[in-house]
Amino acid sequence: MKIIAIREGSQAEREGLRPGDELLAVNGQPVRDDIDLLYYGAEDVVYLALQREGHVFEAECEGSEDLGIELEQMRFKFCRNHCLFCFVDQNPPGMRKAVYFKDEDYRLSFLHGSYITLTTLSETEIKRIVEQRLSPLYVSVHATEPAVRQLILGIERDDRLLEKIDSLLDGGIRLHCQIVVCPGINDGSILEKTIRDLAKRYPGILSLAVVPVGLTGYREGLYPLKAVDSLHARKIIELVDRLRSELIHPSSIILHHFDGEDTGIDHKSGFVYCADELYNRAGIDIPETGYYDDFPQIENGVGMIRDFLDAAERLEVTEGELKYTGKVALVTGLSMEPYLLQFAKRLRNFTDNLQVRVIAVTNHFFGESVTVSGLLTGRDIITALQDIDSDETVLLPPNCLNAEGLFLDDLSLEDLTKSLNVTVCQGEYDPVATFFEGVS
């Protein structure tokens, strides 16, 4: 792996390492990526083997201190599945190249919580995962019935999913799993079988999310999937609720006390959770906080709304200073509109210094069936804000921009500010912290 940067004042700089050097091995082990560097470098003394312009040399560092090395980006493993609902296949043309890349990389699953199917996971990779304790991993199951799983993933043979899962669990690796429900394919009895098969492997499998298939307006030539409508959503919730009441698991939390003694206390884990979108489509109230345990699948859209509602309850007791005054427009997707309307009303009642309104943006980019705020684009937001007042501050959802500050259509926060000629800011997941200083 090539070193692309050396942090100023770091051990690597003191040892004379430079950008462009190639890191060959750490403590005698070859380096394939950042994980190898971290894992094999977790020793009191770290020996680095490097190459510069064909010359091999060594460096010795202390493992207790960050080395200060930034490696080139790892090469990601490409997904060879042909999933019926793959969102990448449903992207419109003309987007940046990275959006069309399908990854199936266990390292991204470990580092960033990306879901992988395990279809091409090899014995060698399982051995590495177990050896380096790359846990937890996030696994897309969809169905444990081999023929149904083959259909959904577009693979030609049984990939022996449960055997791979058992190998990982036997090695001490913990998993979070998901099922994307496609009406008429993996719902009903297939869904029940899948949940039961995975529940048998609790607590190795820590949690299971049940989410509705997401369909965009770009499905020409793709498998004719049905959307999860209100009736389907209700049936899925009823099935999951029945199984939760039957399968609910006792588990043990270890509390570590300052005197060094550990106390175990029993609690219950619901194990399987329905996505927020299922409740929205079914027209059923979002469950109370206890349903979600410790919110293990919140980044998968399971419990985000409840977390928002719970955070909003702190409004009446907050003592922070307002970050904004005057007119504020809260931008959101259609799914969150009713919850933001409630919060905006509470804000107006709480202070006279804010005039808050909610603007729900229709997703024309992907299609009107896509209603989540994380898939809003800059152009659709600009279209929805054509009547914005010049003295109005616009607050965007926190999840519609990537780490580089870009929307999915490559527009930036600055592009919106220039186009609308108003102040545009990115909000936080905590609605109270969005408006008040000193709230965390």
For this entry, give a set of tags.
single chain, about 450 residues, Rossmann fold, 17 strands, about 30% helix
Q: Could you outline the blueprint of secondary structure elements for this entry?
A:
Blueprint: E1 3-6, H1 11-14, E2 22-26, E3 29-30, H2 34-40, E4 45-52, E5 55-62, E6 69-71, H3 106-112, E7 115-116, H4 123-131, E8 137-140, H5 146-153, H6 161-170, E9 175-181, H7 188-199, E10 205-212, H8 230-247, E11 249-256, E12 262-269, E13 272-274, H9 276-282, H10 304-312, E14 326-333, H11 337-350, E15 354-361, H12 378-384, E16 392-396, H13 413-420, E17 424-426, H14 431-435
Parallel strand pairs: 7-8, 8-9, 9-10, 10-13, 14-15, 14-16, 16-17
Antiparallel strand pairs: 1-6, 2-3, 2-4, 4-5, 11-12
Our count of helices gives: 14
Q: What's the CATH first level of the largest domain?
A: Alpha Beta
Low-confidence stretches: 252-266
CATH topology of the largest domain, anyone? pyruvate-formate lyase- activating enzyme
Q: Give the distance, in angstroms, between the N- and C-terminal Cα atoms.
A: 39 Å
Description:
With 440 residues, the chain is of the alpha/beta class. The chain has 3 domains: 3-71, PDZ domain (Pdz3 Domain), CATH 2.30.42; 88-302, pyruvate-formate lyase- activating enzyme, CATH 3.80.30; 310-435, Rossmann fold. It has 14 helices and 17 strands. The protein has helices spanning 11-14, 34-40, 106-112, 123-131, 146-153, 161-170, 188-199, 230-247, 276-282, 304-312, 337-350, 378-384, 413-420, 431-435; strands at 3-6, 22-26, 29-30, 45-52, 55-62, 69-71, 115-116, 137-140, 175-181, 205-212, 249-256, 262-269, 272-274, 326-333, 354-361, 392-396, 424-426. Strands 7-8-9-10-13 form a 5-stranded parallel beta sheet. A 4-stranded antiparallel beta sheet has the order 3-2-4-5, covered by helices on one side. Strand 14 (326-333), helix 11 (337-350) and strand 15 form a beta-alpha-beta unit. It is globular and about 65 Å long. The model is unreliable at 252-266 (pLDDT under 50).
